Amino acid sequence: MSDLATGSVAFGQRPALIIVDMTNGFTQHDSPLGGASAATIETNQRLLDAFRLAPLPVCFTSVVYDNDSEASVFRAHLPDLNLLQRGTHWVDVDPRLEPLSNEPVFDKTGPSGFFGTHLKAWLDEQQVDSIIVTGLTTSGCVRATVVDGLHHNYPVWVVEDACEDRNLEAHKANLHDMAAKYASVKSTQEVVEYLAPSAELSDADYV
C-alpha cells in the first residue's frame, strides 16, 4: 500500500516553538532515559535564538509525576519513567536550553504536550496560528504532540534535525509517517530562514 497523496498546507505567520521533553531525564547520559546528542542540543539552541530574535512564542514540556497513580499504565510499560519525580533535577529543562521568564514549561504525565495541560489555552493567549515541534523522542512524545497539534487544527512543522530517538530507524520511520499524514517535516535551516530571512543565523555560527 502506497502513501496517500498529500496537499499543500499554508503555514502561519505567528508560529510557536514547542520544545518537547528536553529535560535532564532525557538529555543527560547518566539517566536511564537519556541522552540527547550534542547535535540535537545545538539545533534546538539555534531555533531558540531565532524565535527569541523574531520574537515569537516559545514553550517547553516536561514529564513530571507527583504520585504513583499518575499515568500508571504508561509507567508500567516504561518503568524508567519513575525517575521523573517532581522536585528532582531530572524534570528540569536542560540548562543549555534554559527557558526565559516568559517561556512556560508545561508539566505533563503522558506523551502529548496537549493532554491534561494548559498548552492549548496558552497558544490561544499568544494568538498562535501554527506550531513548530522539536525534542525527544521522535517516535514518542514528539509524535504525540504533533498529532494532537493537528487535532487542534494547527498547521504543524516538525524539525527533523532538532528531534532524536533512541533508534535511528524509528526516527526515520516516524518522520516519514508524520510527513505522510500530520505535518510538514523541515530542517532547522529551513525554519530559521522562514522566521528571519534578513537576519539568518548561519550554520557557521554553531561550529
Automatic annotation (TrEMBL):
Pfam families: Isochorismatase (PF00857)
Keyword annotations of the record: Hydrolase
MF annotations from Gene Ontology: hydrolase activity
Domain Isochorismatase-like span(s) in chain numbering: 16-190
Tagged with keyword Hydrolase: yes
InterPro entries for the chain: Isochorismatase-like_dom, Isochorismatase-like_hydrls, Isochorismatase-like_sf
Protein's recorded name: Isochorismatase family protein
Source taxonomy: Bacteria, Pseudomonadati, Pseudomonadota, Gammaproteobacteria, Alteromonadales
